[in-house]
Amino acid sequence: MLLDVLSPAPVRTGHPRASDDAAGSPARGVFFLVAVAQAALFGLSGLFGGFYDFSAWGALALISSVLLVALVLVQPLALSRPAALALAGVALLAGWSALSMTWAESVDQAWNEVNRFGFYAITLTLVIGAVRTRRHAATVMGVLTAGLAVTVLYTVGAMLLGDGGSMFKDFRLEDPLGYVNGMAGLGLMAFWAFIALAEGARHPAARGCAMAFAVLAGDLIVLTQSRAAVPAVVASGLLMLAVVPGRMTRAWALLAACAGVAVSLPVVLDVYGEFSEQVLYPADGTVRSAAAAACVAAVAAGVVWALACAAVPGGASRALRRVSAGALVAIVLAGAVTAVVAVGDPIDRVKTEYDDFVSLRVDEDRATRFTEGGGFRYDLWRIAFDEFKGSPLRGVGAGNYDTDYYRERRNPQPAPQPHSLEMQLLGELGVVGLAALLLLVAGVVWGIVRAAHDSLERDRWVIVGAAGIFLAWLAHTSVDWLHNIPGITGIALVAAGVVLAVRQPGEERGAIAPRRVSVAVIGLVVVLALLAASEGRRWAGEYYLARSGSELNRDADAALRDAGRALDLNPDSLPAHYAAARAYAAMDRYELARSTLLDAARTEPSDYVPWVLLGDLAVRHGRLGQARVAYRRATVRSPYDTDFSVSSSLGELRGS
C-alpha cells in the first residue's frame, strides 16, 4: 500500500545542481539511508518502550552525533529559512539547558536534559540534511508510516491472539509502549499518518486500507481512556483543518474515521466498563471482543471509503463540491446538537468539570474517563507556574521541576515533570525556554505552510502526514510528557524534518559548505564532538550503574567497584550513590553505607529519597534514633507522604 503512493520520479526540491548532486553522490546516498533508518527505528519505537531508558536513546544519540559530524564534513548543509528557525529553537533549548547546570540543584538531571535536547537537535538536522528530493521525502514518510502501521497491527494482534488483559493497567491500554498516555499520543500520531494516506493516496484501494488503519488507531486511543487525548484530538483536528489546505477531503476522511470508531464503541468501551479495584486488568475475552469489533469496524470503514473514492473523481465539479460542503456542514451541526442534548446544560457542565479540575477530584465510577475533567494536572501546573514566578528568566534548571514538586504537591501522584511541555519549560528554563519552543514551532508551522503552498497537489499525503504527526505530538505533549519519550518525539521530529527539508534555490546557495565556510563547519563539528563526549560519558556511567545492580546479589565487591566507576563518570548521580550504599550495606559496612547516602542528601538537598533510604538502613541495623531523624527529614521534603516512620519500616521487615 505505501509503495503505491511514493512519487514516481525524483523531482527536485531545491537548486537543480544540488539536487543532481544529491541523487548522484554515494556519500549523500548513505546519509539518505541513515534518515530512512531513523524513520524505521522511531516508527517502531512503540514496540520498544519508546526508547525511554537512557541505555537505549543514549546509544542512539552517540551514534547520531558521529553521523552528523560525517554529514557536515562531506556535504553542504543547506537549510531552508523555516528549518534554520526550527533548529535555532532546539539548539537554544540544548544550550540554555547546559547553562542551567550552573544554577540547577540537580546537576545530574540538568545534564540528562542537555543530552536529550541535543539528541533532538541532531535527529532533526540529520533528516533535514539527508532529505533532498521529493522521492527522499516520500520514502522517509512511507517508512515512518509503515513502522506505525506495524505497531498498530502488533497491538491489535496481541489483543486478539495473546493475553490481551495483561496489556492494560487499571483497565487502560498501556502496552506495548508501557505508558498509557504515551499509547494515546502514539495512536493519535499514527491516526494522522493514516488519514493523510486515506486523503492523498493515488489508488482507491490504498485509501481504503489507510482508512481501516486510521479506525484501528482511533480505537486504540479509546482503549487508553487518556483524558489528555481529548484536547489533543480536538486541537490537532482544528489545526490540520486551519493550517493545511485540502480541507474538504480531509474533513470527510475524519468523519469517516470517526464513524468507524463510533460503530465499534459499544463493544470497545466494555473493557473500561469492567473496572474494579479488586481486579488488576480486564478479562482476556473482553479485550478480544473489543479488538475484534475494532477490526470489523475498520474493514467496513475502509471498504466504504474506497468505494466512495472510486465513485467520486478527483476533479469533481463545482456543483458537486458545493453539495459535499453542504452535506458536511449539516452532519457536523447535527452531531453538535446531539452532543449538546446529551450533555444537558453545557455551561453548567463546563463549570462542574472546571471545579473538578481545580479541586483535583477524580471519579473512577464513570463508564469512560473521557467525560471527566478531574485529575491532578492543575496541581502539577500550579507548581510549575510558581517556579516560573520565582525565577522568570532562567527557571529552576533543566530537569529540576521535582526539586519543588514533592514539597509543594497536594496529590498522591509521583511526577518528575508537570505533564506539559510548555509548563515544564516555563518552570525549568523560564521565558528563554518557552521562547526556544516558540522558535521550533514557528519554524515547523512555517515549513508546513510553505510546503503546502509549493507542492500540496503533488505530495499531498507526505505533507498532510508530516504536518498531522507533528501537530498531534505538539497538542498531546502540551497536556502530557511525550517530549520526554525520545522514540515518540523522534517520530514527530522525522515528520518535521521532511517538511523543513524543502528548499528554494537561494537557500541552496546559502548552504554551509565544508570547503567554503570552514570556520562554521569547524565550530559545528566542535559542538557535536562535545555533545558526543557528553552522551558517551553518561552512557558509560549508566552502563556501570546497571552492571552494579546485576552484580549485587552474587558479588558485592564487584558491585561496589562498578558503582564507584559510575560515580567517577557522574559524581552528581544519586542512583550511583544508592548503588554504592547498597553494596556497602550488603557487605555489612553500615557507616560507609550511611556516609554515602549522606553524600547523596548533600548533593540534592530537596530530594526526600536519600533520607528515606537512610531511615530504612538505620532500622535494619537497629539504630532507631537515627531512623526517626531521617524519616522526619524525609517528611519535611515530601509532606504529602505520611508513611515515613520507624513503625511502618519495622512492619515491612516483619512482613518480609
Q: How would you describe this protein?
A:
By secondary structure, this protein is mainly α. It is built from 27 helices and 2 strands. Helix 6 packs antiparallel against helix 19. The longest helix has 35 residues, at 421-455.
Give a topology summary:
Layout: H1 16-24, H2 26-43, H3 54-74, H4 81-100, H5 107-130, H6 134-161, E1 168-169, E2 172-173, H7 180-200, H8 204-224, H9 229-243, H10 247-268, H11 270-273, H12 284-311, H13 318-343, H14 346-359, H15 377-390, H16 402-408, H17 421-455, H18 460-477, H19 486-500, H20 505-509, H21 518-551, H22 556-569, H23 574-586, H24 590-603, H25 609-620, H26 624-637, H27 646-655
Helix pairs in contact: 2-5, 2-6, 2-19, 3-5, 3-21, 4-5, 4-17, 5-19, 6-7, 6-8, 6-12, 6-19, 7-8, 7-10, 7-18, 8-10, 8-12, 9-18, 10-12, 15-17, 17-18, 17-19, 18-19, 21-22, 22-23, 23-24, 24-25, 25-26, 25-27
Feature tags:
656 residues; mainly alpha; Serine Threonine Protein Phosphatase 5, Tetratricopeptide repeat; 2 domains; 27 helices; 73% helix; 1% strand; globular; disordered N terminus
First-to-last CA distance:
56 Å
Tally of helical segments = 27
Poorly predicted residue ranges: 1-24
Domain count: the total is 2
Task: Let me know the average pLDDT.
Answer: 86
- By oligomeric state, this entry counts as single chain
Strand order of the largest sheet: 1-2
**What is the string of SSEs from the N terminus onward?**
HHHHHHEEHHHHHHHHHHHHHHHHHHHHH
Q: Helix- and strand-based class?
A: mainly alpha
What's the main sheet like? 2 strands, antiparallel
The rounded Rg comes to: 26 Å
Number of strands: 2
Query: Rough shape?
Result: globular
SS strand fraction: under 5%
* Overall helicity: over 70%
